[in-house]
């Protein structure tokens, strides 16, 4: 142990005169080394005491703390720490030249939404360069996961974006006009959108509406009769690069069979899965709003039942849902758990049921009384959401957010429609070219 300590201290030597002192010290060190090699000392506690009390003696020179070994001096402050004690590992290590701007750019900016970051580019040239870096976009996509709003769209209509906070979250207007054709939004995931073109070839696109970055996908091999039941799967990771998957559940013509086809951005082509789902009753798969969570895609296909496909294991199965789920409930993630949220009206009272666990049992019921609940003949509808503490509900034409922890109901939009398709969105800088 003492031998290692001396080797470590060699790197910190500050000779007081010339190289001859270094040579003398090395010779003295080698002699001491031989003496300790010949001893049978194995008690580390005794060795450490010998270093502290006998070999090394603290001293002050010109206001700086040194340790004296014979006639040589060693600076003990290898790190910046308040007590400058070489024998105590510092609680933290900080840069001596660090300023508040470095702290903000390194530790705060990656946790902000895209709209705020675009505005911060105008603060100075340095911030503009920093935020424009691909590595920063990667860090922001990994760090910022909060729900920013909803995309809403009627069939064959233009999409619109409903922000949860217009001052904080937003995208360039009008949405998705940077794509080569008008599109229908099919699925969203962590800042990316999967869209299908309205032209005759029904082209597939993956895009980021915040950065106007987009990519056209190759045509899939399986034929589908109507709109695709597809789910976009993208999980930002610490690894450099963007990898996403698109999973299609295809109802084969004249056969009670559903096959799965997966596109991988890494491989760049579609692959038909060996997993097949057989059903004996009519199901509704096309047009179903899919959901992705932790490597598994879900589609609600009938009352009390969701079709699940595991990307990693290449397996499909059935996830039970509440028997009363159809048709105004949504799958979501709450506190890392797959949950089902159902909103309905019972008399003059509006209720939200939250189901969870593997068997989807009722875990909580929330009682609400929106001011316009009695005006709606359509009752109450839960909309897709992402935040564990936030629920989105549609009451007539009004869209509300409900904070579960604070028990606060807030109006976010007054132009809702039961015929619209609503999809959650995260305001991310993720780039498809990483």
Number of domains: 2
Count of DSSP strands: 26
The fold-level CATH name of the largest domain is: Neuraminidase
Strand residue content = 35-45%
CATH superfamily of the largest domain: TolB, C-terminal domain
| Structural class computed from helices and strand pairing | alpha+beta
Please list the strands of the largest sheet in the order they lie side by side.
Answer: 6-7-8-9
Determine the mean pLDDT.
Answer: 79
Known CATH architecture of the largest domain: 6 Propeller
Number of helices: 7
CATH secondary-structure class of the largest domain = Mainly Beta
Alpha-carbon distance between the two ends: 47 Å
Report the principal-axis shape.
globular
Unreliable runs, pLDDT <50, ≥5 residues? 1-22, 32-56, 77-82
Helix content percent band: 10-25%
Rg over CA atoms: 31 Å
Summarize the biggest pleated sheet: 4 strands, antiparallel
Organism: Liquidambar formosana (Formosan gum)
InterPro entries: At3g26010-like, Beta-prop_At3g26010-like, F-box-like_dom_sf
Protein name: F-box protein At3g26010-like beta-propeller domain-containing protein
Pfam families: b-prop_At3g26010-like
């Amino acid at each position: 142990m003492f031998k290692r300590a001396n080797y470590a201290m060699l790197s910190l030597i500050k000779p007081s005169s010339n190289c001859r002192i270094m040579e003398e010290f090395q010779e003295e060190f080698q002699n001491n080394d031989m003496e300790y090699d010949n001893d049978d000392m194995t008690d580390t506690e005794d060795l450490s005491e010998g270093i502290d009390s006998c070999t090394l003696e603290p001293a002050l020179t010109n206001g700086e703390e040194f340790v004296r070994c014979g006639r040589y001096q060693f600076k003990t402050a290898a790190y910046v720490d308040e007590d400058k004690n070489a024998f105590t590992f510092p609680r933290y290590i900080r840069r001596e030249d660090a300023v508040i701007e470095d702290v903000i750019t390194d530790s705060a900016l990656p946790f902000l939404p895209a709209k705020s970051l675009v505005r911060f580019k105008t603060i100075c040239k340095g911030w503009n360069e920093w935020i424009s870096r691909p590595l920063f976009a990667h860090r922001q996509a990994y760090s910022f996961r909060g729900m920013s709003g909803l995309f809403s769209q009627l069939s064959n209509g233009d999409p619109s974006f409903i922000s949860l906070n217009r001052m904080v979250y937003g995208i360039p207007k009008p949405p998705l006009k940077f794509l080569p054709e008008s599109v229908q939004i099919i699925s969203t995931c962590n800042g990316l959108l999967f869209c299908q073109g309205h032209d005759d070839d029904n082209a597939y696109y993956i895009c980021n509406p915040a950065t106007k970055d987009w990519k056209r996908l190759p045509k899939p091999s399986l034929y589908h009769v109507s709109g695709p039941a597809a789910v976009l799967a993208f999980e930002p990771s610490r690894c450099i690069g963007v990898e996403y998957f698109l999973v299609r559940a295809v109802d084969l013509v004249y056969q009670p069979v559903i096959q799965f086809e997966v596109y991988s951005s890494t491989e760049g082509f579609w692959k038909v899965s060996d997993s097949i789902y057989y059903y004996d009753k009519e199901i509704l798969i096309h047009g179903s709003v899919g959901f992705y969570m932790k490597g598994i895609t879900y589609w609600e296909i009938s009352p009390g039942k969701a079709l699940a496909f595991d990307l990693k294991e290449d397996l499909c199965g059935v996830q039970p849902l509440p028997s009363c789920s159809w048709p105004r409930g949504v799958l979501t993630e709450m506190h890392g758990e797959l949950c089902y949220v159902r909103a309905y009206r019972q008399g003059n009272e509006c209720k939200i049921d939250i189901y969870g666990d593997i068997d989807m049992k009722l875990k909580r019921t929330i009682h609400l009384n929106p001011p316009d609940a009695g005006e709606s003949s359509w009752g109450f509808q839960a909309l897709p959401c992402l935040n564990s503490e936030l629920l989105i509900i549609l009451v007539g034409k009004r869209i509300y957010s409900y904070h579960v922890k604070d028990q606060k109901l807030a109006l976010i939009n007054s132009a809702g429609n039961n015929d619209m398709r609503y999809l959650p969105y995260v305001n991310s800088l993720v780039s498809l070219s990483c």
